[in-house]
Amino acid sequence: MDLAARLQEFRTRYPNRTLSAGGAQWTYRICGDAPRSLLLLPGGLGNDLAFDLVAGLAGEFRVVYPAYPPLKSLDDALEGLAAILAAEKIARVSILGLSSGGATAQSFVRRYPEKVERLVLSNTGIPMAHRARGRGTVNSILSVVPWPLLRVPLARSITKLLNAPAADRPFWDAYAKDLFTNRLTKAEVLSNLRLQLEYQTRCHYSPDDLAGWPGQVFIIESDNDIFNPVRRKAMLETYPHAPVYTFHGGGHMPAFIRTGEYLDVLRGFLRQEIEAPPPRPK
Predict the structure, then answer these.
(1) Is residue 112 part of a domain?
(2) In whole angstroms, what is the distance from residue 19 CA to residue 232 CA?
(3) Contacts with 23 (C-beta within 8 Å, 6 or more apart), sequence order
(4) Residue 195 needs a FRET pair 20 to 30 A away by CA distance; which of 23, 73, 201, 257 works?
(5) Cα–Cα distance measured from residue 280 to residue 237, given in angstroms and rounded to the nearest whole number
(6) Which of 187, 110, 192 is nearest to 147 (CA)?
(7) Of 81, 86, 76, the residue nearest 97 (C-alpha)
(8) What are the DSSP calls for 34-98, one per residue?
């Protein structure tokens, strides 16, 4: 079955549910019915980009896969996600935070540590205030650019980040065009940018934040990610006990272009008993 057929099957098999929470109307998919639950937090690009990844997990986990509606604050995002878990009667969950979804994941475990059993941070970073310089200005400029003019460069940026194999590029080009033409709104994109800015300016995380939390963090990174060595080092220093898996040449989105390997790595962590390893050598 080719990519287009797998995407259509995913959308048909796992239709969106809706919930009013956190001051917004949320949509989310429930994929699978296994006893253990996994909350998949995307980087603000709807909730079907990871269709192959979720299909590989749905037999072993009950995957909760939300899309972010337009939100006023990071607090609204956290409250909305907690409300989804409550509506689905999920008391404790593992979280996979992908890209900027990792920002939401790190914030969520600090707000609701009792709801999280383990945390996977994939191709993401910690908040760094200096990265917010100029972001507010850029966001303001983007807010006045007409949406039809923004859609094309946004779609191109996603396909560039994916860096998919040549044979798959026509599918991903079409997917990205449809995403920004028919499935995402300008309000959703600007909301995601505002939340990223808030994360960088408001949040400050340290290795001691989760000292009393009995769960475990796992880090997935790539050696050629847009998150450069300085930012990856800061992540490892914030979570000094976390096991790390590094994709060589995996780019920013190994979950989508090297899904088989990614699934093996992810399952290996989620299946193991939680034991805190010694800190990595400095």
Answers:
(1) yes
(2) 35
(3) 71, 72, 76, 80
(4) 257
(5) 9
(6) 187
(7) 81
(8) -SSEEEEE-SSBTB-TTHHHHHHHTTTSEEEEEEPPP-S-HHHHHHHHHHHHHHTT-SSEEEEEE
Q: Which two tokens stand for residue 140?
A: 């303001």
- Does 195 reside within a domain? no
- The total of structural domains in the chain comes to 1
Kindly state the tokens that stand for 244. 């790390």
- What are the pLDDT digits (tens) for 227-282? 999 999 999 999 999 999 999 999 999 999 899 999 999 999 998 754 444 444 44
Residues facing residue 7 across a β-bridge: none
Whether 280 is covered by a domain: the verdict is no
Q: What is the CATH classification number for the domain harbouring 41? A: 3.40.50.1820
Q: Is the pTM of this model over 0.85?
A: yes
- Give the tens place of pLDDT for each residue, 132-179: 777 788 888 889 999 999 999 999 999 998 889 999 999 999 999 999
Count Cα atoms within 13 angstroms, Cβ side, for 197. 17
Distance CA(36)–CA(31), nearest Å, equals 12
Nearest alpha carbon to residue 121 among 34, 36, 225? 225
Q: Is 109 a domain residue?
A: yes
Domain of residue 33: give its range.
3-131+204-271
Q: Which two tokens stand for residue 264?
A: 């093996």
